[in-house]
Amino acid sequence: MTESERWMRRALRLATKGFTAPNPMVGCVLVRNGEIVGEGYHFVAGMPHAEVNALQQAGERARGATAYVTLEPCCHYGRTPPCTKALIAAGVRHVVVATLDPDPRVRGRGVAELREAGLSVEVGVLEPAARALNRAFFHFHETGLPLITLKVAMTLDGKVATFTGDTRWITGQKARNYVHRLRSQSGAVLAGIGTVLADDPRLDARLPGRPSPRQPLRVIVDSHLRTPPCCAAIRLAQQNPQTYPLLIATTAPQPPKELAGSGVEVVTLPSDSAGRVDLHALTRLLATRQIISVLVEGGPTLHEAFLKAGLANRVLFFIAPKLVGGKSAPTAIEGDGVATLAEAWQLSPFTVRRLAPDIVLEADVLPA
Ligand code: AOF
Ligand code: ZN
């Protein structure tokens, strides 16, 4: 590993501390004479960028330093001023960038501006890792759609509930904490009406040791508006609609009176051929709201509908070392399924992570 790669690896690690959607996670390390003089990361959208935090820590010591940044420094006025100007003003001499920024407001112009100001810029150090870190951000700016992940928590025999409907809990504490972290990093968390009626989920992010983590947009896919007005997800929105926004996606033309003024947004969307919410229309709607990643938390009918619509990009299966059996106990993916193995949704090879006692399997859904 070269010296540049070592510093970049440190910057990548720092970046993962952020909860930045719809912004990318970015880390920055400032090095002078082989020593770190400042480092920082982007914590949450609307707050200063990684470079600005690192520069603030370095103060005068940034003069003549090399900046290792996991993403091309921005050159636009967004929620915050451009990082290029801050780096130039601080007297940074060299900038090492892992990958260019796909945001149309930047796209190479950040690097060009730094070079015009006389800084030397190197691009491409640990690029694959930097792209993987912000996969949703790249996916969104390259396709115009959010990255959609199907999340399942199941027993080893593929059940997501017992035959009586018991679901609490299938996986252990570590796996559940991990899911809350994912929720906090996701643009939106989705659940189908079946799951809302069966489990009454809050769909918020709760992180141990963090009293007010960033919250995703919560979405209930409810074709015929059966969401009970007193369910936990709605109560949360009523208490604090700014922090806990809730959107109900339906095909029903008229939102019921009970929901008016409750802090819940009801959106009527076109229906698919089965009379359910058209998931393409829903995905496009989320994209217009700058939702770059969506965690679909079930249930099994909604998961199958996302696969059938060709919209699911990846699957994340938490598998608990438990067996529950029961031919009527629901499994991870339901709907009608496919008739033959030739029609099966093909996945990439798994990556495996242990969150004892559970395991997590992750794979991409390959295009049909
Ligand atoms: C950087 N460093 O740490 C981040 C960058 O609304 P704003 O002002 O926060 O701008 C968001 C855009 O800035 C985002 O889409 C991406 O292009 C860039 N993010 N750039 O130089 C950072 N988070
Ligand atoms: Zn910036």
From TrEMBL:
List the catalytic activities from the record. Answer: 5-amino-6-(5-phospho-D-ribitylamino)uracil + NADP(+) = 5-amino-6-(5-phospho-D-ribosylamino)uracil + NADPH + H(+); 2,5-diamino-6-hydroxy-4-(5-phosphoribosylamino)-pyrimidine + H2O + H(+) = 5-amino-6-(5-phospho-D-ribosylamino)uracil + NH4(+)
- Descriptive protein name: Riboflavin biosynthesis protein RibD
Give the record's cofactor note, including how many are bound. Answer: Binds 1 zinc ion.
Family label: In the C-terminal section; belongs to the HTP reductase family.
The residue ranges of the CMP/dCMP-type deaminase domain are 2-122
A biological process from GO: riboflavin biosynthetic process
Q: Which domain of life is it from?
A: Bacteria
CDD domains per UniProt: Riboflavin_deaminase-reductase (cd01284)
Query: Binding of substrate: at which residues?
Result: 183, 203, 206, 297
- EC id: 3.5.4.26, 1.1.1.193
Q: What does this protein do?
A: Converts 2,5-diamino-6-(ribosylamino)-4(3h)-pyrimidinone 5'-phosphate into 5-amino-6-(ribosylamino)-2,4(1h,3h)-pyrimidinedione 5'-phosphate.
Q: Which positions bind NADP(+)?
A: 153, 169, 195, 199, 223, 299-305
**Residues involved in Zn(2+) binding:** 49, 74, 83
Question: Which GO terms fall under molecular function for this chain's record?
Answer: 5-amino-6-(5-phosphoribosylamino)uracil reductase activity; diaminohydroxyphosphoribosylaminopyrimidine deaminase activity; NADP binding; zinc ion binding
